[in-house]
Amino acid sequence: MAMKENLRTLLGAGWLGWQMEANWTDPFLFLVYSVAKPVSGALILVFMYIVILGGVAAQRDAFAFIFLGNAFFIYVGQVLFGVTWVIHEDREHFQTLKLIYISPISFYYYIIGRAGSKILIATIAVVVTLLFGVFVLGIPVDAFTMDWGLLILCLTVGMACLVSIGIALAGITFLTAKHSGGINEGIAGLFYVFCGVVFPITQLPAWGQSLGYAIPVTYWLEAMRKALLPAQQLEGTGLQGIENFWLVALLAVSALFFYFLSILIFRLGDYLARRAGKIDMTTAY
Fold first, then answer.
1. Exposed (0-12), middle (13-18) or buried (19+): which is 60, by Cβ within 10 Å?
2. What does the pLDDT look like over 208-267, one tens digit per residue?
3. Contacts of 203 (CB under 8 A, 6+ apart)
4. Residue 98 contacts by C-beta under 8 Å, 6 or more apart in sequence?
């Protein structure tokens, strides 16, 4: 019975999240926006690369490394920080958090359901970006040679890990006012620099490399690159010697660790927010 109720909460929250992300607009108009946004982001990267190295063909392997890292980092921005933003958005903008809180549903599953809509939107953006990269920029991704098993497995485990980290940050957001945006942007910058998104982590100082190796997003991005380009590995990334089995194992352990950590931080934030009367607090921000 509880599972049925939680499933209904997931589906309802997912539908609500989709409508809110689309701003109740025309589906075709939202589809155009969903295509234009990732393509624009890819073009910014291309122009930056052209300015620095004179063209995407100058170092094609390095460009593929950067392009794929940026493409999959869309998930980090959209899912991880989108989950955190749900608390701030429902409490400050729509002022519906207190109403959802007292309704007979699991708020934890409500957050996961809202994350589902963000995963769907991020997936559209990633697919559009990858298609643009393959057919316009010549990224050598071949659907017949890519490792579909590794892609699906690591994508699933990686999403579980990102959602868990997002829920942990959401627990902290219970106790903050306008600072959740700064926390999100700070964590995003940290991940962007230290997780090998646009350059190998071996370019970082020793302490920076140690930090990068401790963040599961680093292994997830490497697994995505290996899945899409199994025959083309860039040397000097610091991760090229890790077997696929161990990449999946590291991701699985990280997802499990952050799952339990998210429950702990979320419940602690919930408890402290209740005691301090911050569940329905608005700061007019």
1. middle
2. 888 888 888 898 998 898 899 887 766 667 777 788 888 888 888 888 888 888 889 988
3. none
4. 91, 279, 280
